[in-house]
Amino acid sequence: MLSSLPEAVAILLSLEGLLVLVVGTILGIILGAMPGIGSTVAVAIVLPFTLTMSQAPAIILLLAVYAGSVYGGSIAAILINTPGTPQSAATCLDGYPMAQRGEAGLALGWATVASVIGGLVSAVVLIFAAPQLAAFALEFGPIETFALILLGMTCIVSVSTGSVVKGLMAGMIGIFLSTVGGDPILGEMRFTFGNWQLFAGFNLLAVVIGVFALSEVFMRASTKQSTVSELVSFNGIVLPSLSMWKGRFKNLAKSVAIGNVIGVLPGTGAATAAFVSYAEGRRSSPNGDGFGKGEPDGIVASEAANNAVTGGALVPTMALGIPGDAITAVMLATLTLHGITPGPKLVEDNPVLIATIFSGFFVINLLLLPLGMLLSRVAAPILRVREAFMMTAIVILCAVGIYFVRGNVFDLLVMGGAGFIGFLLRRQGFPMAPLVIGMVLGPTLELTLRQGLILTDGNFLAFFTGHPIALVLGITAVAALLLPVVRSLQKRGTA
Amino acid sequence: MLKIFSIAAAAAVVAASSVSAEGFPERPINLIAPFNAGGGTDLLLRGLAPHFAEAIGSDAYVSNMAGGSGTVAASALQAQRPDGYQLAYMSVTVSTIQPQIKNVPYGIDSWTPICSIAASPTMLFVSGDSPYQNMDDVVAAVKAAPGELVYGSSGPGAITHLTMVSAFAGLGIIDDMKHLPFQGSGPAIKELTAGNIQFFGDTELLVERGDFRPLVVFNDARVENFPNVPTATEVGIEAPLNELYLWGGLFAPAGLEPEVTAKLEAACAAAVVSEGFQEFAANSGTVVNYRGAEEFNDFYRAQYDANAALIEAAGL
């Protein structure tokens, strides 16, 4: 594949190649920053345009929109506390407090640099280690995935700002919400009360937008504020200086690694990676105590990981023909339409195409930095409008985005309901991130648990005795839960 | 007075609807994909839409209404007025399986079938390094180790699930096997490659995606690309389990006026044979299978009844 690199670079440097790279990345950033659109929809929006393109530019366009949207999600998360996508929900936790302190530009700077590094490293890993990583993905069956998701669930504790008990309750609410709809094993309907609108369950994006964005609007409307105040002061991205990175490299490296590994595993995804990385960052970072209060390490952990997922997700897609998520599934469909059969022989049969895709992916991640800075400069005046207008705009954007995804008015009701309930819960001090974690991880946790029980004939212990990877992940999960308790007991003992 | 008024109103309604049938279509036609953008159904509709629009002389746009294995869109459509401006592309599972296993607000009589567009027979396949060369090997292995071997599906009630049920219930060994449902064919194929499941079934298109060995095809004759793979009948699977097609076509709500149906049917026929759609079909591996409204209606109803047997065998 590397020998095809000169041809690949020639394709990228052609007019069509450059155009697709730049326009795709810009579109991706903008669509990702719009609340409620999300990466999947962003990719679906540009899909029809790819049908008339030649093979490589078509895939590059989809990739640019994909990577751009994952990064773009962080902009809305930091500036208006509205995760553009579920995967940037963890970015809100520290990004928005920083913005409220008046450091919005710097918060975005951390997010941008972390995103770019996460994406670039994942591109390099993709280019050099795709076959090896694909083999690793095959080691991850339902039982191993269950153990990984279990570990992910322990993040609920670390993102529970204020009260851990309330965080756990919010997490349980999220898991419960995810059980509504079709049973994944038996196909029967649960908790739908005969209403067909609930057959598909609650729309994750509608709930996320509701509990984060809409409840925020309600919170602001309910507190007395001067009507002319600006939401946040923001004049464009401020990149963190090298000295500010001191003591943060380890956190960055770890987050990139977590994103890469989780990205490779089909059926997990960027949101899982962001939360797991955030939890790990909080545990191991020297600045861990500041997490949730506007700590740059929190932004770095979330953003480096979710962007590293993009490269990781391409590994099983390109090496095995197995899509890692809904977005890579769209890419595979596009390849098929262009007469290419995805599968284990894809790389072997189309070396130039794959070299173009991989090196294009690298360039896209490089482009995130200048294009992100440019776009944020253009967007800055928009944020200076009065808060009342801004809040109205957010509500409208969210509603349009949510309706657009599935064309279903019911989803708007779900968003409204989630917003109102989220508002009530937040006023009582319930953190909302655990609810999102519960809803994101709940379905996979249930599916893989029940798949595992089918494989082991109902023997839960066999999950760990027969699967070393699951055993290690399981022990890590238990340790992640017990360590804080042990530490606080120790503190009490020495005091 | 009231009587006269109601007669006049009825006459007005008739007049209005006959006018609308004559002038049909006056506005764009919505082609609903009951699945997410970027999926197979969505792409097929997007490939068809421009040619359909050209043939009917109006705009046609594709919208997505995903969820509940396609039942959300179908449930929404059955509540719409049958005016011909709302059509959905429904597959065998959405139109004939789901209403028999779920408490959905639609059934066999809820639709005006317009035309069928595609149909592909399904195949049962194993991983390339599997020890099973034919179905006899499979039956022997299952009988030697009951309850050990696992077949996958892309979800309960999906065409992939029914393929497995047709094969193993048809050979009388399904009670000695385990079913592992996944969410979508992708993850299931990964586990087939990894060895966590031994059998999977889908259309020819998916068989070509990896190093897989098809063992049986649920068609009335052997298929061109796999001349050595026997049909279900050849390996001893009896009707109605011996043929299984992933088919799909356009449906409108029941009660569509015959004139409107005829116009839509003609447009569908012209779109399917158009050069652009044929090229799309060749690239995407779509097996075009056109049936007109009447023929499709008979086929759909026959399938609805035939699949009841499958559903019972699946224990759904």
UniProtKB/TrEMBL annotation, chain A:
<feature type="transmembrane region" description="Helical">
    <location>
        <begin position="432"/>
        <end position="449"/>
    </location>
</feature>
<feature type="transmembrane region" description="Helical">
    <location>
        <begin position="352"/>
        <end position="375"/>
    </location>
</feature>
<feature type="domain" description="DUF112">
    <location>
        <begin position="18"/>
        <end position="437"/>
    </location>
</feature>
<feature type="transmembrane region" description="Helical">
    <location>
        <begin position="142"/>
        <end position="161"/>
    </location>
</feature>
<feature type="transmembrane region" description="Helical">
    <location>
        <begin position="167"/>
        <end position="186"/>
    </location>
</feature>
<keyword id="KW-1133">Transmembrane helix</keyword>
<dbReference type="Pfam" id="PF01970">
    <property type="entry name" value="TctA"/>
</dbReference>
<keyword id="KW-0812">Transmembrane</keyword>
<feature type="transmembrane region" description="Helical">
    <location>
        <begin position="387"/>
        <end position="403"/>
    </location>
</feature>
<feature type="transmembrane region" description="Helical">
    <location>
        <begin position="257"/>
        <end position="279"/>
    </location>
</feature>
<feature type="transmembrane region" description="Helical">
    <location>
        <begin position="198"/>
        <end position="215"/>
    </location>
</feature>
<feature type="transmembrane region" description="Helical">
    <location>
        <begin position="59"/>
        <end position="80"/>
    </location>
</feature>
<keyword id="KW-0472">Membrane</keyword>
<feature type="transmembrane region" description="Helical">
    <location>
        <begin position="461"/>
        <end position="483"/>
    </location>
</feature>
<feature type="transmembrane region" description="Helical">
    <location>
        <begin position="107"/>
        <end position="130"/>
    </location>
</feature>
<dbReference type="InterPro" id="IPR002823">
    <property type="entry name" value="DUF112_TM"/>
</dbReference>
<feature type="transmembrane region" description="Helical">
    <location>
        <begin position="20"/>
        <end position="47"/>
    </location>
</feature>
<protein>
    <submittedName>
        <fullName>Tripartite tricarboxylate transporter TctA family protein</fullName>
    </submittedName>
</protein>
<feature type="transmembrane region" description="Helical">
    <location>
        <begin position="409"/>
        <end position="425"/>
    </location>
</feature>
TrEMBL record, chain B:
<keyword id="KW-0732">Signal</keyword>
<dbReference type="Pfam" id="PF03401">
    <property type="entry name" value="TctC"/>
</dbReference>
<keyword id="KW-0675">Receptor</keyword>
<dbReference type="InterPro" id="IPR042100">
    <property type="entry name" value="Bug_dom1"/>
</dbReference>
<feature type="signal peptide">
    <location>
        <begin position="1"/>
        <end position="21"/>
    </location>
</feature>
<protein>
    <submittedName>
        <fullName>Tripartite tricarboxylate transporter family receptor</fullName>
    </submittedName>
</protein>
<dbReference type="InterPro" id="IPR005064">
    <property type="entry name" value="BUG"/>
</dbReference>
<comment type="similarity">
    <text>Belongs to the UPF0065 (bug) family.</text>
</comment>
